[in-house]
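1st attempt posting a full record on here, be nice pls
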Amino acid sequence: MGHCFSCCNGVTDSEANGSYPLTNTSESGAANSENKAKPQQKKMGNLLSVEQQRLDTASKTGVFALQDQNNISFPMDTLKITGLRMLHIENCGLGAVPPDISKLAPSLRKLKLPRNKLPNLPDAARELAALELLDLSHNVISQLPSALFAGMARLKEANLSHNRLAILPASISACAQLKLLDLSYNALTALPAEVGLLAALEDLDISHNQLSDIGEGFGPGLKRLKRLAATHNQLCGLPAGLLTSSPVEVIRIEGNPL
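the predicted structure (as tokens):
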């Protein structure tokens, strides 16, 4: 009678006796692993989709912008974009720029790589002849290629602030159209005489360095200089030519033993 009751209620003898069929644990584990992998695969797929969208947008607009990411590698696919005018990678932990950056030479006007972990730039960056703006601020650059600026005749703005530069390459003299040069918060102990030959320069910031002297020839060649910030250095004086032979309007020198 007991058996009839269990069968009539859809319960097997083994279940009625408290025993249940064994499940395949390996199959169960595999299923769980597969279920866990699916969200990760979906996330990767979403990231790839976002990256592709960003590249597609850059192909249409000529602007590639990436900000606030964690320790990325240089996006090599950007080097395949024809007509890229601006490359902006900021606060992404970027640690290196490849020599192939020169592939962007025909069109790149603005290279903005602030707030990363760059220790230098490749020699090939000198080939970016169309560059008008270079922003390498807030990195860990201690040295730049000596010929970096040799081919940058169109450069108008250079922001090299908040790095570890001890020397500015003399090739800066090739930047005949340079209007703004920010060298603040570095470790400069001297300026190359070539800086004094930048006839188009309007704004020069050399604050927070270790400069004890600017150089007597500094001034006559700076025919358009309007603002000089030289605060917090070791300057004991300023070149006479800076005051008499340049049109400088604002000079900031606080924080020096003058």
